[in-house]
Design brief:
Strand content: 25-35%
Structural class: alpha+beta
Helix content: 10-25%
Number of helices: 4
Number of strands: 9
Radius of gyration: 18 Å
Strand order of the largest sheet: 4-6-7-8-9
């Protein structure tokens, strides 16, 4: 998983020629509390004027789960990680999460609506609002630093009862798009889950 964020403590470092050090990586790992941070680096996501942020790659969170994967064990762990990511908005200025971060935020959101005993990601779509790989030579089109501002639409079957369609902004906002009764062969029955 990759995230982009700003922290005042590292402002001078990311705007200097020296860049982030190994000691800074350890401090960021502790600050984020998301597990082992494989690498950190300062990156520019400003399409005109420079906008330097920190890119952190958390190697403990890779491919949260793929489309069609059904979870019945470990759900509480994913919910806790989603809560930690959500809490970063209170302590840091989180700029962007990738699709794995979006999935964790969606799971945390669903857990606020349901007591989850099983969960299956059915579909996901990533909509890139801006693409920066053409403006910068140091990045590939599929990297978060090339597409820092996006919107994710993900659908989940929860407890084999409800079909949720969730929208997640890369900046962390999560919204319910629709919820339907799952498996009704006679048509669409929209549900109104209470938060």
């Amino acid at each position: 998983m990759e995230i982009l964020f700003v922290n005042e403590k590292f402002d001078d470092v990311i705007h200097s020629d020296g860049g982030l050090s190994e000691q800074n990586r350890k401090e960021i790992e502790e600050l984020l509390g998301l597990g082992s941070v494989e690498k950190v680096k300062e990156v520019n996501i400003g399409p005109g004027a420079d906008l330097f942020v920190i890119l952190a790659s958390i190697n403990a969170i890779v491919n949260v789960f793929l489309i069609g994967d059904r979870l019945v064990k470990g759900i509480d762990g994913w919910i806790e990680i989603g809560k930690k990511i959500k809490s970063l908005w209170k302590t840091e200025r989180l700029v962007s999460v990738d699709k794995d971060g979006a999935s964790l935020l969606a799971i945390e959101y669903l857990a606020s609506l349901e007591n989850i005993t099983s969960l299956e990601k059915v579909n996901e779509q990533e909509i890139n609002i801006v693409k920066l790989n053409g403006l910068f030579n140091d990045r590939q089109p599929n990297e978060l630093i090339s597409k820092p501002h996006g919107y994710f639409v993900q659908s989940y079957v929860v407890n084999d009862e409800k079909f949720y369609i969730i929208g997640i902004k890369s900046s962390g906002e999560v919204n319910l798009i629709k919820c339907f009764e799952y498996g009704n062969p006679y048509g669409l029955t929209e549900l109104k889950p209470e938060k």
